[in-house]
Amino acid sequence: MKMFKNRDIISMVDFSREEIDHILDVAERVEKDPTGCHDLLNNKILALLFFEPSTRTRMSFESAMYKLGGKCIDLGAIDASSLKKGESFTDTIKVISKYADLMVIRHPAEGAARYASEIVDIPVINGGDGTGQHPTQTLLDLFTLKKENKLERVNIGILGDLRYSRTVHSLVYALTLYNVDMTFIYPPSLRLPDWILEHLIKNDIRYKECNNIDEVIGDIDVLYITRIQKERFPDISEYYAVSDSYKVTKSLLVSKAKDDLILLHPLPKKNEIEKELDDTPYAKYFLQVEYGVYVRMALLGLIMGVFD
Ligand code: NCD
Q: Which residues does the annotation mark as catalytic?
């Protein structure tokens, strides 16, 4: 297992099963005693650089840093920074790296966080790079599956925009390290990218594909639902062709799903989950949000070298 101290968190492709399990163990320790961590990162500064909208990722990192006794500085709105005057991305991150001990970057371009990690001396965490990866979301998804006892010998359905969702790309890759079956349910134009399908085939991972949730809902133990990523479509008419093509409803689950099915969603959600489901035992997406703070506390502490 590689050391976590000063390590960049860019893609799930960079992590072994053993390393992921270690992060989840540390997150569980944090969950048991969050207040015991309150001064571990005194005097440490986390820089938040969000070149795309964010609620959960940005604020949960902020919350995690404060709960560890650290502080955050935020690039804020792009229009209020020197990027507006024409400063390059490269110069901006080099400058900010001199103000902080580590940074989280979200950027619309795939590869932006990897690039940043190559040119600055402080650790970089990828908070989502275009349609690429979203490793910290995946770690909190895995943490939720583990806490719900659904990370081994289960069938995990993944529904929606498998083409453009970075949360799906990270999660599917990571799940290949666990003993699970996967079922992909998607409108025909939103299939997983070839590199992931090739990875699944090469590693003999058991998976099934279909276009209609009704056909498979009775066979799955977890349903990971995604929003259609409107902002990623090069042609907006292609988005409108699929925008209302699936919705998970209470009547579908009550009539066909296993009683202990759980629903996960990285959020934000739009109309892909019927609102009535939010207060049912199926829905675990607000619990995921809570777990996100423990997982990010674990990661920040590991990278800063205060957890082993
Ligand atoms: C996701 C993202 O930004 O990729 N949001 C998140 O971080 N929880 C999912 C999405 O935007 O649909």
A: 56-57, 85, 106, 134
Q: How confident is the model at residue 275 (pLDDT cuts 50, 70, 90)?
A: very high
- What is the atom index within ligand 1 of the atom nearest the CA of 227? 12
The binding-site residues of ligand 1, defined as CB within 6 angstroms of any ligand atom, are: 56-57, 128, 134, 137, 166-167, 227, 266-267
Q: What are phi and psi of 63, to 5 degrees?
A: -60, -45
Please write the tens of the pLDDT for every residue from 228-244.
999 999 999 999 999 99
User: What does the alpha-carbon distance between residue 160 and residue 210 come to, in Å, rounded to a whole number?
Assistant: 11
Torsion (CA) 189, 192, 193, 194 in degrees, nearest 10? -100
Task: Report all structural domains of the chain as residue ranges with CATH numbers, in order of start.
Answer: 12-133+292-303 (3.40.50.1370), 149-283 (3.40.50.1370)
Name the 3-class secondary structure at 184.
Answer: strand
Interval between CA 167 and ligand 1 midpoint (Å): 7
